[in-house]
Write a structure and sequence with these properties.
extended; 3 domains; 360 residues; TPR_rpt; TPR-like_helical_dom_sf
């Protein structure tokens, strides 16, 4: 099987330049080049031109075209790299990958595209890992919050066996999440992300208190103190109450109120891992909410419901006041409304023409 695969790869490698050599003998090559350029197949066009012999009737013309095609290929590469990096920055991984695959199919020898592809693979893997860790963190917070409720529920159930089973399941789930958080904390320490390590170890310690974890947390916080010049963090009672309220309002969907409550948390407490984890989740929810409602406004705007669209956009502006995309929509809609009001005022001030009587 391996020998067959090697033969297939070797055959493919030999056939690709072979196609370019065969195409280089085509008398109507100039027309074929046009077609490839339209389809952004710059590598195919350039490879074929490189095999054209001086005896070819279109040799001189094709050599002149080569310079222009190289410039077009460079421009295509530049545009695609900008587009791909924008998708990566926006965490639009699937679109970025599609664009990368398309670009590499057109320019397979591009060093810049190859480097970007390698970086993309690393960044996506890193982001996936961070999402999994966030899931563990969210699950741990839920388990901590409902620990006492679960015990009471198990003790209250009419079927004693069912109650014991439910409690056992809760313990098993707690143990599983605890182990994942410990791995998350160790990973954070290994990669130098001390804030992630602190966050995971703090939650793990809440699930299963241990001297080893407390010692690790103290070591991490000492290191963070050196870097950030901050005090070892213990969440104040005021901050804990505000954090619980902010979480509750966020879960109910009132993101504005949740953000207002979060802003009341003292600055020092905002450095605490649990508060930072909450803020990360709130940011994600705000981003999703803003994106959804911007599109909702765009649909209304396209249907001529400009005032309704503007009302939606102004409402979400409080959540994301520095969103340039949102602000541009608000500005454009406001200009249209101002213009319509202006035209309306002009119409009301113009008096109707006087009746004229014709004389013969």
């Amino acid at each position: 099987m391996k020998s067959f695969l090697f033969f297939f790869v070797l055959l493919n490698a030999l056939l690709l330049p072979g196609c370019a050599i065969i195409n280089s003998f085509d008398k109507d090559l100039d027309q074929q080049i046009d077609q490839w350029v339209k389809q952004h197949d710059y590598s195919k066009a350039l490879d074929t031109i490189s095999y054209v012999r001086k005896s070819h009737p279109q040799y001189k013309k094709l050599q002149k075209r080569k310079i222009k095609i190289e410039k077009k290929a460079q421009n295509f590469e530049k545009i695609k790299l900008r587009e791909i990096n924008a998708h990566i920055e926006a965490k639009d991984w699937q679109t970025a990958e599609k664009s990368l695959n398309y670009s590499l199919a057109k320019l397979p020898d591009s060093k810049k595209l190859q480097t970007t592809h390698r970086e993309f693979i690393k960044k996506r893997a890193q982001y996936l890992k961070s999402l999994y860790y966030q899931l563990y963190i969210n699950k741990a917070e839920w388990l901590v919050k409902n620990k006492d409720v679960q015990k009471e529920l198990s003790a209250t159930m009419p079927d004693e066996k069912a109650g014991k089973k439910a409690l056992q399941r809760h313990k098993q789930e707690t143990e599983q999440v605890y182990q994942q958080l410990v791995v998350c904390g160790i990973e954070g320490m290994n990669i130098g992300d001390l804030e992630l390590a602190e966050q995971c170890f703090l939650l793990a310690e809440e699930l299963k208190p241990s001297e080893a974890l407390r010692s690790s947390i103290s070591d991490i916080q000492r290191e963070l103190f050196k870097v950030e010049k901050r005090e070892t963090l213990v969440l104040s009672k005021k901050a804990r109450n505000l954090l619980n309220k902010a979480k509750s309002t966020m879960q109910s969907g009132d993101l504005k109120q949740s953000l207002k409550i979060y802003r009341k948390i003292p600055m020092l407490d905002k450095k605490h891992a649990l508060v930072r984890a909450f803020k990360q989740e709130l940011n994600v929810r705000i981003k999703d909410n803003v994106t959804t409602r911007v599109e909702m406004g765009r649909k209304l705007y396209s249907q001529g419901e400009i005032k309704q669209a503007l009302a939606i956009w102004n409402d979400i502006r409080e959540l994301d006041p520095n969103n340039e995309y949102l602000l541009s929509h608000i500005e454009r809609a406001q200009k249209v409304i101002d213009k319509l009001e202006q035209l309306k005022d002009q119409k009301t001030t113009i008096s109707p023409p006087a009746n004229r009587t014709s004389t013969k």
